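debug: dumping io for the single-chain case to check the tokenizer round-trip. Nothing else runs in this session.
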Amino acid sequence: MTNVTSAKSVRRAHHWRRDMVELAALFTAVAVADSVANMIAHGPDGMFLLFASAIALIATAAFHTWWARKHGHAPPASATGDTATGNAATGNATAEALAGAGPLDEAGAAGEGETTLWRMRTTVRDEPGSLAALCTAFAALRVDILTLQTHPLTEGTVDEFLLRAPAALQAKDLTREVSEAGGSGTWIERADAHDLVDTPTRVLGLATRTALDGAELPLALRQLLGRCTIHSRPALSVTGRPADEDAPVEGVLDGTEMRLRDPHGGSISVERPYLPFTPTEFARARALVELDARLGPRIPRGEAVLTLPEGQEITVRRADHQDLDAALAMHGRCSDRTLGLRYHGPVGDADRYLRHLLSPRFGRTLAVESASGKLVALGHLLWDGDETEVALIVEDAWQRRGIGSELLGRLVALAVEARCTSVYAVTQASNTGMVATMRELGLPLDYQIDEDTLVITARLEAAAVPVLPSYGDHGDHGDPAAGLFGHDQEQADR
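debug: decoded output
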């Protein structure tokens, strides 16, 4: 109805001069036809020529009909909605080009196999048709565009794609076609199901996690910017000297590195070797840091109450700077051997590290309290660039009760939740208790020994880690049987 009404509204009025021209053309055509008919009728072969003309006309019409049907140009069966049909066909063709999925014939569809997800970035000229050329190249390779982000630059535009491609298509072939279509500086890597979330939803989710927990900011930046290394530099070192005097106020963007002011003092640097950061990414990172600054220090206050095999209850919860005095008091009750195994240095330096370790900016810390409220153990999950370290300390009087195994299991669960690929522990080669505790995880382990220092790395790619309380605002109270207690007493907790 819309198309018909529109056609009527634009119909132009007839003019008398056009009518006169049409009438003259009609009389001329009749006169020519009459002359031809008289010439044929009065000629010696008039009847033969008349029949031959009729047969030729019929044959020509039949050939035209066959040709039109064969090449898909036959008129629609119904005149109703022909305009809508044409619009739909045009829209479908445009959608196929933009989505990168060309039409598949029956043989191609039957041979379609598994697909692979790719993340790709390429720089194109900032001019009309650049993106269309890339889409055409993807369509020729049967590559589907799932998401697209654009990052404007002073010269050109960075296009970031999430692609679904046939499994047989190699990365080098895809990169070559993109280069021939006008892309430059192309970078590509395998993607996974986490990348299927659209960008606005992913950014909102990261902002929510950052708002709930101050320790999430480094993880949120890493997930926002892809594979990168995050370094938090405190304003003061553990010795009390200034560690970062030139922390930028508005931040600095320099190719593959950006530096941002840490709201809690010091700075946060983000580095990646393979691809320069764009101004769009820099603005997103600054927005997350500003959100963290406005909300101030915060930590979830949930807890889990567990029962030891001896019947004593303990509470496991998140810890932060407010637990500094209790942690120092625990240090005072620990033996020199326990402190030496944990901090790998002079016992007198142990207290200096606590403020750094309890900062949410450098990781997550779990505290264990006795029924009387006394802090008896700490477990740290520390962000170390693109790696993650786990560290434990249990007061001497509470060792060999499974507390270290319980803490380590929960720290590994937090690392899996943060999408870490591995965790490592640094200890002395003689600390058989820590070795046994790591082995209880049931994960693939790598051992590196340098003189008396032992580094144990647990790979988490296929970790079957139990779902443990996340210590959120809801306040979890765990089942006493949910812990990892009851292990061999030789597994000394450190």
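debug: round-trip ok. Residues 1-13, 73-111, 465-494 have pLDDT under 50 and may be disordered.
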